[in-house]
Design goal:
heterodimer; A: alpha/beta; 10 strands; 7% strand; B: six-stranded antiparallel sheet; two-stranded antiparallel ribbon; 34% strand; globular
């Protein structure tokens, strides 16, 4: 169990706190408090060897103080990784992280009944702890009552009522932090309470009575909303409408934003290229690095839009209901409702989606979700889809004005990805490739709340930073490598024409293998470069056809039409739908599954599926066309 | 004696008969002439409350459920089921928690005193 540090020897002089940990259950408003205390001075990192994110921040006015935002936990038992990490950090057992000097414990005042047990676990770690009862505004408004002083006596730690969203009561935090080691060491005599659940409950009940705790009346609004949103007929209907609306907006607004952003990035690149003298280094900088980096940046509008919606849905409390509604469907393929958010996010980008699977406690379901997430049609597939569809599908209406042939093909590709995901999940379920995990599906439904602008904005900033860091570093390296391959072997100190570069040689090497799919060596070069990132394909094709003296004046679409048959084009689309072409995804999967085994299996499976499907598509369709 | 009590005749070893009167227990118990089964969370109807007796689940799962308040002695109220019938929404110690039917089935309730029950006929 936990260990208590012995009462410290008297210090010669009170020292300020250097490291303070912030801990509390999910839905207690802890993040809101963290954001309020640190404003924008936050950093995201990782704890070594685990998939838990490390959030640290600085508090204005406390120069040497680092605030660690520990993951939301219900207790300190080593079940889930989050709780293990929290316990390790509090005990000073986390490598690379010094033991905190003090703890800020955030509890939901409206839900104290259950959360006192966490308080016992945390306080008994022996660190000076300030217990913060959050949501005091709601608590008071709904008729809750508690005697703060009595509670403090019972717990043996100072207690303060705060409202992180309003910013009230935070002077207590200030005072606590300023006092530093001047705070009295309290004796952690609560140790006896924790190991024994019935005893723990009894203790909690006693504390509640002695502190005069009266729970507030639950919000009537939540019940009323649930009556509609979880209604037998209206519930699923509203759910589908919400999902549809999210998609519509993300792609309806996101795409034009992306295109505009792309222009800005291109113009910037051209400007810099014009300003610098032509040289190998300039070429490296612009064609290599900037092209690669901007190909990632261009997706930022869509990703941010999607995360905005996910943020609003989550903060408002609706996402839990959505997980509830979708659980039944997911269960049929061996997943659970908590896979809903990750799989929805995967439509923007699989990288943050896979990171979002941490909320799934059931290990098996989590791995399955990670495994199928890349099948969801991510934004990176759109450029090549758009290019091929524009080149090969005539612009004719299918359902009048509502649906054109091109839109129909695009939609079918989305459906294809979705079906592949579910089929794969079913396959994993049947073969029981993953050992069955016992953890049941348990979901807490928070009360409905109005999301605040501040919390959403900070969340977006956080997610964007993570995305850019993750993807940026990988893509940067990869773009450099590709650039080098296209620039070698040097001819007279100059980069060779593309057909004679190293990468073209590789393309010729694989041509026999991809010929049955309807692809030639040029497409082969594109496939090689896009193994690392799908979006690179379009740029590579442009370069190949652009520099080919026979085609450099023709638009890329026409060039493709000459070089690729219709069955070949469809095979290429199918290939892109199924293939794993994203080193960033593989990197994240490696991190989240703590090993190379799963990324390797995923890569082989998806590549195999892509190859076979494209082969079948090309061969079968060639019989007609 | 209350209406609805079970009465049974027992024969003791010395061939004397005694009358046993048991207060009416079933209602949401699955009635069987031979063996009364324990009720589970699954047997609650919307709005009904039960008190947990025990959890027929592995230790690790029990520990996890403990977090959410599902522990022997806790009062649980069944709110509603999700639109497709599963999972089920319960309120325990002021929090709304959703569980799947398989899990709910294994959380056993104490038999209830008929005086507590809202009046309705089964």
């Amino acid at each position: 169990m936990s260990t208590i540090s012995p009462i410290a020897e008297p210090q010669s002089a009170p020292r300020d706190y250097r490291i303070v940990a912030l801990i509390g259950p999910p839905n207690s408003g802890k993040s809101t408090l963290f954001n309020r205390l640190t404003k924008l001075r936050q950093k995201v990192g990782n704890y070594p060897g685990v998939t838990v994110e490390q959030h640290t921040g600085q508090i204005p006015g406390f120069k040497d103080l680092t605030l660690i935002d520990l993951p939301g936990v219900y207790g300190l038992e080593p079940f889930s990784e989050d709780e293990r990490v929290s316990l390790d950090v509090l005990n000073g057992r986390m490598p690379g992280q010094a033991r905190p000097d003090a703890v800020l414990l955030v509890l939901d005042a409206t839900n104290l009944t259950r959360q006192l047990q966490l308080a016992a676990s945390v306080i008994s770690q022996g660190l000076p702890t300030l217990v913060l009862l959050n949501m005091s505004d709601l608590f008071a408004k709904r008729g809750g009552h508690i005697d703060v002083l009595s509670l403090a006596q019972e717990l043996g730690a100072p207690v303060a009522m705060i409202s992180a969203s309003n910013g009230t009561g935070l002077e207590a935090v200030d005072r606590f932090l300023r006092q530093g080691q001047g705070n009295a060491e309290h004796n952690a005599n609560l140790l006896h309470v924790i190991p024994n659940p019935p005893q723990a409950r009894q203790w909690a009940a006693q504390v509640r009575t002695r502190a005069g705790y009266r729970a507030p009346i639950p919000s009537a609004w939540s019940r009323r909303l649930d009556h509609v949103l979880l209604h037998k007929y209206w519930g699923p209907l509203i759910f589908l409408v919400v999902v549809g609306a999210v998609f519509q907006t993300v792609f309806g607004i996101g795409k034009p934003l992306s295109d505009a952003f792309q222009n800005v990035l291109n113009n910037f690149g051209n400007y810099v290229a014009g300003a610098l003298p032509p040289s190998f280094l300039t070429s490296l900088l612009i064609d290599g690095i900037w092209k690669g980096v901007s190909s990632v940046l261009v997706f930022l509008p869509q990703i941010l839009l999607l995360f905005f919606f996910v943020g609003v849905l989550e903060d408002s409390g609706y996402l839990a209901r959505a997980a509830l509604i979708s659980d039944r469907t997911f269960r049929g393929v061996g997943l659970n409702g908590k896979a809903f958010i990750p799989l929805l996010s995967a439509y923007a980008c699989a990288v943050p989606a896979i990171m979002a699977t941490r909320t799934i406690e059931n290990k098996r379901a989590r791995f399955a979700t990670i495994f199928i997430a890349p099948f969801m049609t991510c934004s990176a597939r759109l450029p090549i889809y758009t290019l091929l569809i524009a080149a090969f599908v005539p612009n004719i209406p299918v359902v009048g004005v509502l649906l054109s042939a091109r839109a129909a093909v695009m939609m079918s590709l989305y459906v294809l990805g979705f079906l592949a995901a579910f089929a794969t999940a079913k396959l994993l379920n049947l073969t029981d490739a993953l050992k069955a995990s016992q953890m049941p599906f348990v979901l807490e439904l928070p009360e409905y709340r109005l999301p605040t602008v501040q919390s959403i904005a900070l969340r977006l900033l956080d997610r964007a930073t993570v995305f850019l860091k993750q993807v940026g570093t990988v893509i940067l390296c990869v773009s450099l490598v590709i650039f080098i391959l296209t620039s070698l072997p040097l001819q007279n100190g100059q980069a060779p024409p593309l057909e004679q570069s190293a990468i073209a040689t590789l393309g010729h090497v694989i041509e026999p293998v991809i010929k049955p799919l309807g692809f030639n060596w040029k497409i082969g070069v594109g496939l090689l470069t896009s193994v690392v990132a799908r979006e690179v394909m379009v740029g590579t094709l442009g370069t190949i056809y652009g520099t080919d003296p026979n085609t450099h004046s023709l638009p890329l679409q026409a060039a493709l039409r000459d070089d690729l048959s219709l069955p070949g084009a469809i095979a290429l689309l199918v290939f892109f739908a199924f293939a794993m072409q994203c080193t960033s995804t593989l990197a994240v999967v490696r991190r989240e599954t703590n090993g190379w085994k799963w990324p390797a299996i995923q890569f082989l499976y998806m590549s195999g599926l892509a190859y076979v499907s494209a082969l079948v598509a090309n061969q079968v369709l060639s019989l007609w066309w | 004696m209350q209406p609805g009590c079970n009465m049974s005749l027992a024969r003791s070893s010395d061939f004397r008969y005694s009358l046993h009167i048991r207060p009416f227990q079933s209602g949401f118990l699955v009635s069987s002439p031979v063996l009364p089964q324990s009720a589970s969370l699954l047997d609650l109807r919307p709005g009904e409350t039960g008190v947990i007796d025990s959890l027929d689940l592995p230790d690790q799962v029990q520990q996890m459920l403990l977090r959410f308040g599902f522990v022997a002695g806790a009062e649980v109220r069944f709110s509603r089921s999700a639109p497709l019938g599963d999972p089920l929404l319960y309120t325990v110690e002021g929090t709304d928690v959703a569980l799947r039917a398989d899990t709910a089935r294994r959380i056993l309730l104490l038999p209830r005193d008929p005086a507590d029950r809202p009046s309705e006929s089964r």
